[in-house]
Automatic annotation (TrEMBL):
One of its GO terms (biological process) is ERAD pathway. GO terms for molecular function: molecular adaptor activity. This is Uncharacterized protein. The keyword Repeat applies. Signal peptide: none annotated.
């Protein structure tokens, strides 16, 4: 399946990446080295650095752009689904992956932005620094502070897109998950910082008429005040 993801035909590669992400997530297998390499290459080509003669002649620019957007969306979804529980792999990639996602968020299309934030949800969910299995050393806390700062940056941007309910909903899901993990670990200072940072965003989101958004805002507020 990894070989299929390296094929040049864009639509084929998209389907292969999706299948790979689903399989790795379901089986909890760590193949992140290979997946990250494939996704890096895919995103580089998606930025227009390479284009085959066949693709130029067989697709209009708009069709190609649509396929590239879908491929980029799938690439980020796969990155999230493939994020492993293996601590050593996470140590190697945890800041690199986060930088990749956050740096591309602002200038991406809305569907890709949703995929990036969904990938961040998988990232936070499996992050070993937040799973409570080991005591955090001083160096770990410094890494966690950097990670939280980057995640907050992504969430603040996403929650600020007032007319995109799906993106805000994904961001609120990440925020709730992150708050719950910090609370379970008794990270009082970090939880207080989260509350202060996102208080204004939560108030703004509470005005949204989308039921899922209103419900999640209530969940987060209850979590933070409990």
């Amino acid at each position: 399946m990894l070989k299929e993801c390296c094929k040049e035909q864009l639509a084929y590669k998209q389907h292969a990446l999706k299948a790979l992400g689903d399989a790795l997530s379901a089986l909890d297998i760590d193949r992140f080295d290979q997946v990250y390499s494939i996704v890096e290459d895919t995103l580089a080509k998606g930025n227009g650095t390479e284009e085959s003669d066949d693709e130029r002649s067989s697709e209009t620019n708009s069709q190609r752009q649509q396929i590239l957007t879908q491929l980029t969306e799938t690439a980020y979804e796969t990155l999230g689904k493939a994020w492993p529980s293996n601590h050593l792999t996470q140590v190697h990639y945890r800041e690199k992956v986060l930088d990749q996602c956050v740096s591309c968020l602002n200038n991406s299309t809305r569907p890709v932005q949703v995929a990036i934030v969904a990938a961040l949800r998988c990232y936070v969910e499996r992050l070993t620094l937040l799973d409570g299995s080991t005591m955090l050393e001083e160096g770990d806390r410094e890494v966690l502070d950097r990670i939280l700062k980057k995640v907050y940056q992504a969430l603040e941007f996403s929650l600020g897109i007032l007319k995109h309910a799906r993106l805000r909903k994904e961001a609120l899901n990440v925020l709730y998950l992150l708050g719950k993990k910090l609370k379970d670990l008794n990270c009082t200072a970090e939880l207080c910082n989260l509350s202060v940072t996102f208080g204004p965003s939560l108030e703004e989101c509470s005005k949204d008429n989308t039921p899922e958004i209103k419900s999640r805002v209530i969940d987060i507020k209850n979590l933070l005040k409990a």
